[in-house]
Design goal:
GO terms for molecular function: mRNA binding. It comes from Alexandrium catenella (Red tide dinoflagellate). The structure is a single chain. The chain is built from 20 helices and no strands. Among the domains are: about 110 residues, no CATH class; about 80 residues. Helix 4 runs parallel beside helix 6 and helix 18 runs antiparallel to helix 19. By secondary structure, the protein is mainly α.
Length: about 350
């Protein structure tokens, strides 16, 4: 929601009134509790932090750690990192816990450069980089598509005899591979988890499947990356790990990129057979895979008609995927009908819609 200058001024005044009414100690405690509540929106959380600083109510490592965590959870990673300098200005040297909170803020904000700079600062201050710090930084790099930096950081950490990665850290490194279409590295990391005595979870398998799905012929990947993804899906199904929608979506994406539309539909059928409730994304992925299936446009229309059976409504992405299939197979009358249908649902075509319709 909008939070203009008048609203900020009003909140500042109300906070000052509360300070006098509640007293310093209770006021500080109440605000720190409010910062920890997810219902407080970002502008109000930021205003509370500024109030705590301006009134001199934040003076301990705990206070700053709570404030940094609150800002990071709301996507305000820049301000979260700036609080480290605020601490030093108050002659408080940030420790591992506080720095990790700032790193987590960078992770959520995909702020890879800030995360790496903070790691350097921690090293310079003699703070040991623990598992939380490395995982947050690796994930920040991966989510920002800086997969080389993510893998370099992970491998450097592995070189230390004191570093023991867990499944989350491996998952962050494997996930980074998908942005670089480095499916071989993803599979190598997944298999290396056994050597490290770390059991992969569903997220690790999903990340590896996504790396296979992110590789196509233009990236120089072999044509059987889809088969590798299906092997991973089968491994999850055979284990005690419950495959989730992301597992099936990743496998369908891998099949789609390799033009294996029949296998993608089999994965979709397996999702339903397993008793999982499909999402709109599930249907969109299945429809999209049919673009490489000659004459399969009727199947795409059938999938579109199947959404209501699961209490789902097609979105613009659904129609865009359908239009790709119809355009690839030169079904011009059906394209016009699909355009009418999406407008009838009060959906507004975007640039991708017209590109899909007139490839």
């Amino acid at each position: 929601r909008r939070f203009g200058s008048d609203a900020r001024a009003d909140l500042r005044e109300r906070l000052r009134e509360r300070l006098f009414d509640e007293g310093v100690d209770d006021h500080r405690s109440n605000l720190l509790v409010e910062l920890s509540a997810p219902a407080v929106p970002a502008p109000e959380a930021a205003a509370i932090v500024e109030h705590l600083l301006h009134e001199g109510l934040a003076f301990s490592h705990k206070h700053f750690t709570i404030a940094i965590t609150a800002l990071g959870r709301r996507g305000l990673w820049t301000r979260a990192c700036e609080l480290l300098a605020e601490m030093r200005a108050r002659e408080l040297e940030p420790g591992a816990l506080t720095c990790n909170a700032a790193l987590h803020a960078c992770q959520r904000g995909h702020a890879w450069r800030a995360a790496l700079e903070l790691l350097d600062e921690m090293r310079g201050a003699g703070i040991s980089l623990d598992l939380v710090a490395i995982t947050s930084a690796v994930d920040a790099c991966g989510k920002a598509s800086r997969w080389r930096e993510a893998l370099a950081l992970f491998r450097d950490a592995l070189a230390s005899p004191f570093f023991q990665p867990d499944h989350r850290c491996f998952g962050a490194a494997i996930g980074a591979c998908s942005s670089g279409r480095s499916w071989e590295t993803a599979l190598s990391l997944l298999s290396g988890m056994e050597d490290a005595s770390v059991a992969p979870d569903s997220a690790c398998y999903n990340a590896a499947m996504a790396a296979c799905g992110g590789s196509d012929r233009r990236s120089g990947a072999p044509l059987d990356t889809w088969a590798r993804a299906l092997e991973l899906l089968a491994a999850v199904q055979a284990s005690c790990l419950p495959p989730d929608l992301i597992s099936y979506h990743s496998a369908m994406a891998a099949c789609d990129r390799s033009g294996r539309w029949a296998e993608a539909l089999q994965v979709f059928g397996g999702l339903l057979h397993r008793g999982l409730a499909p999402s709109v994304i599930s249907f969109n992925s299945a429809i999209k895979a049919l673009r490489s299936g000659p004459g399969r446009w009727r199947d795409a229309l059938h999938l579109l008609g199947g959404l209501p059976s699961y209490d789902l409504e097609p979105n613009l992405g659904t129609f865009n995927m359908l239009l790709v299939v119809l355009s690839e197979q030169s079904q011009w009358r059906q394209i016009l009908a699909a355009m009418d249908a999406l407008r009838a649902r009060s959906l507004t075509p975007n640039a991708a819609t017209y590109r899909s319709a007139f490839l």
